[in-house]
TrEMBL record:
Alphabetical list of PROSITE patterns matching this protein: HTH_LYSR
InterPro entries in the cross-refs: LysR-type_TF_proteobact-type, LysR_HTH_N, LysR_subst-bd, WH-like_DNA-bd_sf, WH_DNA-bd_sf
Limits of the HTH lysR-type domain: 1-59
Record keywords: DNA-binding, Transcription, Transcription regulation
Organism: Pararhodobacter oceanensis
GO molecular function: DNA-binding transcription factor activity; sequence-specific DNA binding
Family of the protein in this entry: Belongs to the LysR transcriptional regulatory family.
UniProt superkingdom: Bacteria
Name of the molecule in the record: LysR family transcriptional regulator
Gene Ontology BP annotations: DNA-templated transcription
Length: 300
């Protein structure tokens, strides 16, 4: 019969896909993690991982065990919350996955406020331009720009956000006139690398009939820095503009995009007080900070 400690090691390897990455999370050396995995496999009478130069991948048996191990993990977290009580602040570790726009320009301020009020809390922000897997517990919660259409998750809309065409004043001073959308073909456009757009909601330029921007990145912050240095014109989140100088919105009466952020969590965490309280603080702070930054961009 497997014990919880071995299942905890199993989940870390399943999420990290390597002994060394799991060891860093667990604060164990890779050899110890490997022995614990072997002990669990012996106890279960099944091979849980396939080993390859690329790392550790789940076998069919390992994949079936993941959901059961996650359910035990959630129960352990709820038990911890019940024993420690709700009046001592939020404790433990929470990992948030987010696209890099939100992760760079919104989450740091919000998380700083939350951890200041909850000193025993650990927060990891995973800023990657891709879709996260909650089923593999790559994160405890995800900020997404599309509501998930499948999976055992719960999703709540956080807020709408706005985007506009922008350019650096230094670029506009030297470039051809840009007073209408008909002038755009004369300008260098900055945007996402088309084959690296991981969510259809991020395909902003197709609305403008632009399929292949000549200067592109998969990162929002890189795009904004390209614009800041005068490389061209691009669509930017209003909430990101206060973070840079010399970039302003253009053609606002002709181009104004609206998208939404959603908070997505695993269904098993619905009744976990620690996660519930963190999610409530996150959503409240996120909405306040988004409104503040968009108001600054509006006034600029």
């Amino acid at each position: 019969m497997a014990d919880w400690d071995d299942l905890r090691v199993f989940l870390a390897v399943a999420r990290g896909e390597s002994l060394s990455r799991a060891g860093k999370v667990l604060k164990l050396d890779a050899a110890t993690v490997g022995r614990r995995v072997a002990r669990l496999e012996a106890a279960m009478g099944a091979r849980l991982f396939t080993r390859s130069p690329q790392g550790y991948g789940l076998t069919d048996e390992g994949g079936r065990l993941v959901s059961h191990a996650q359910a035990i993990e959630s129960e352990m977290a709820r038990a911890h919350d019940a024993l420690t009580g709700a009046g001592e602040g939020i404790t433990g570790q929470v990992r948030i996955g987010a696209p890099d726009g939100a992760a760079n320009y919104l989450l740091p301020q919000v998380v700083a406020e939350i951890v200041a009020e909850n000193p025993a809390l650990e927060v990891h922000i995973v800023a990657l331009p891709r879709v996260f897997s909650l089923s593999r517990r790559e994160a405890d919660m995800v900020i997404a720009v599309s509501r998930p259409e499948q999976g055992r998750v719960i999703a709540h809309k956080i807020a709408d956000y706005r985007l506009h065409l922008t350019a650096a004043q230094s670029y506009l001073d030297k470039a051809p006139p840009l007073t209408t959308l008909d002038d755009l073909p004369a300008h260098r456009i900055i945007g996402y690398i088309p084959d690296m757009i991981f969510d259809r909601e991020l395909d902003y330029l197709s609305d403008l009939g632009i399929d292949q921007p000549p200067v592109a990145s998969n990162s929002v912050s890189v795009q904004l820095n390209l614009i800041r240095h005068g490389a061209g014109v691009g669509v930017v989140h209003d909430f990101a503009l206060p973070a840079v100088d010399g970039v302003r919105r253009i053609l606002t009466d002709q181009v104004s995009l609206t998208r939404a952020f959603h908070l997505v969590r695993h269904a098993d965490d619905r009744n976990t007080p620690r996660i519930e309280r963190f999610a409530a603080a996150l959503v409240s702070g996120f909405r306040r900070e988004l409104a503040r930054l968009e108001a600054l961009a509006e006034r600029a």
